[in-house]
Amino acid sequence: MSLLYKAQTRFLFHAHIKIKIPVFYDDSVFDYLFGILETVDKKYNSYQPDSYIDRINKNADHFVSVDDVTIRLLRQTISWSDFFEGSFDITVMPLIRLWGFYKTDGIRKVPEKADIEKTKKIVNYKNIEIEDHSVRISSGQEIITGSFLKAYAVDCMVEAMRNMGINDAIVNAGGSTIYAINNETHPFWNINVRDTEENQLLYTLHLANKCYTTSSQQETFVDINGEHYGHILNPLSGYPSSNRHVGIVTDKCFDGDIISTGLFLQTRQGFEEKIGQLQKRMSIDGFITDKTGERFATPGFSTYHA
User: Fold this and answer.
1) What is the CA radius of gyration of the chain?
2) What angle in degrees, to the nearest 10, is found between the helix axes of 253-264 and 268-279?
3) In this predicted model, what pLDDT tens digit does every residue of 262-298 receive, in sequence order?
4) In the chain, what is the straight-line distance between the N-terminal and C-terminal CA atoms, in Å?
């Protein structure tokens, strides 16, 4: 039986987000679903003026009143930072700026080691203080939400879709966060996974009621003397990760986005150790491609592709 769908794409969270649903739904459904994403973007995106996170950043060293969602998001990201022993840290923004991201003059250079060491002292998620409904970060600190907020918004939207009775759909948020909703008539969506540097097809995943999340440096980097330096920085070293690609399958996009970032900052041995620990507490499988192009995948990842 041929299934018919319709789709809309809008630009949010610095990404093109595409929603595909069965053709019999009214177009007003798109407005409702994208509205959920827009609300999350407006309230919590660190790049949005007067969002809760923006207020925290602009009032560093002072407590700022926030809502329950902000508290929950920060507590969860802090917990993940503990798990990754500080290699994942949402206060990494000063290091990102030091490396020349967001500069407008086009002049960039590899930071001096002394400057990296100085900036590393500012980056510390443990300095995020939460008291009742107020949050304070230390002077000079800055929270960045890019590693989790888009994925959290997709989770919120997927929950709304299920509450509406939508049981056959797919959401592609910038290619890095993809959630598939499936039923018995349409048991899975095919997701093509390509090598981020050579653009070769690695896998065709059969994704069903799961999220596929990927982290790579291919599209977001600074070019310094002809060499690419990616935006995923290790707060412990102060330098970008040298890995090429991480892809994982999880139940929740929020967890997947954070985990893929955290795993991207690991060695292959660290990847195996961390994902092994995670598999004891949640459903997760995936792969890592290191700087040489060598790829390692968990045994269970093969169940998602032919």
Assistant:
1) 20
2) 150
3) 999 999 999 999 999 999 999 999 999 998 889 999 9
4) 22
